Amino acid sequence: MHELIGLVAAILTTASFVPQAVMVVRTGDTAGISLIMYIMFTVGVAGWTSYGLLIGSFPVIAANVVTLVLATLILVMKLRAVMANRRFVARA
Predict the structure, then answer these.
(1) Using DSSP, how many helices (H) and how many strands (E) does the chain show?
(2) Domain span including residue 28
(3) 72 phi/psi in degrees, rounded to 5
(4) pLDDT tens by residue, 46-74
(5) What are the C-alpha distances in Å from 34 to residues 37, 48, 74, 81?
(6) What is the number of structural domains in the chain?
(7) Three-state DSSP class for 32?
(8) Of 4, 18, 25, 75, which residue has the fewest beta carbons closer than 10 angstroms?
């Protein structure tokens, strides 16, 4: 029963993240995203993924692998935007 509760929680929390990820990927707009927060979030999700692997919990592993992929994609987009902005400012 506890694995079922974990699975439902994992599905809900991961699914709640998907619309934000889809919007950022579609629009490419990362202006409203904090770089520091996304770095911390992505590292945290990587930690949860590692923890899930260590304890062998499928719900923890599955949810966090999906979230880690999406978070990493958004983080890369944010980093590219920050770097492009810095190059633009440096040229001006």
Answers:
(1) 3, 0
(2) 2-91
(3) -65, -40
(4) 999 999 999 999 889 999 999 999 999 99
(5) 5, 21, 11, 12
(6) 1
(7) coil
(8) 4
